[in-house]
Amino acid sequence: MRYVGNVSTGRMALELARAALRRRHRVTLFLADSVAAPRSRARIRRFVSAGDLRDALRAAAPSPDLILHAAAVSDYAPSAVRGKVESGRARWQVELRPLPKIVAELRRRHPRAILCMFKLESGIGRPELVRRALAAGRKAGADLVFANRMEEVGKTGSEHRGLLIDPAAPRAADATIAATKTRAEAARAIVAHGATRAARAANATAGAAA
Description:
By secondary structure, the protein is of the alpha/beta class. The protein has one domain: CoaB-like (Rossmann fold), CATH 3.40.50. Helices cover 34% and strands 26% of the residues. The protein has helices at residues 11-22, 50-59, 102-109, 126-140, 183-209; strands at 4-8, 27-32, 43-47, 66-69, 76-78, 96-98, 114-121, 144-149, 159-165, 176-182. The protein has an eight-stranded mixed sheet, with helices on both faces. Helix 1 packs across helix 5.
């Protein structure tokens, strides 16, 4: 595979990059400015805000075969205030406006790439987690969704329990591809299944062209 796009803000990004590099993929890692860059063959692209990340992704080339969109991107941003706000206020009221979904833009810009998005929830059971992951994945046009709950993340340094979901599955009962217990295990499963699908897509395109 000539390119793996990997987007995130922390430890999962690094694990995904390691897993992809072990499989000898070429990796571009979009990494938050506050996260230490790994010593690896990955190309590093830095960002601070959701806007920075959006701009960096738009400028990225060539088009990826596999996109792993693990970033915890802000859904909202403060609305601009005209003029100067007087000092000395006892209270401040901040109005937030919704931001465009980066995962949706990635799907539009790279329709042939295999896209894996992440879905984090809290306070729900696994059946509901799967249903929400399916809905989110289908809405975004994702090929894979890694879904997990806050209650099952970070209890130890490496713990990252979750489910790899296929949004194309006809029933929720058939949607789980893999269940993982650690961050490294999750990264290996995501990269392996994503790379397999990307290779199949490339072969199908080559066959159609021939």
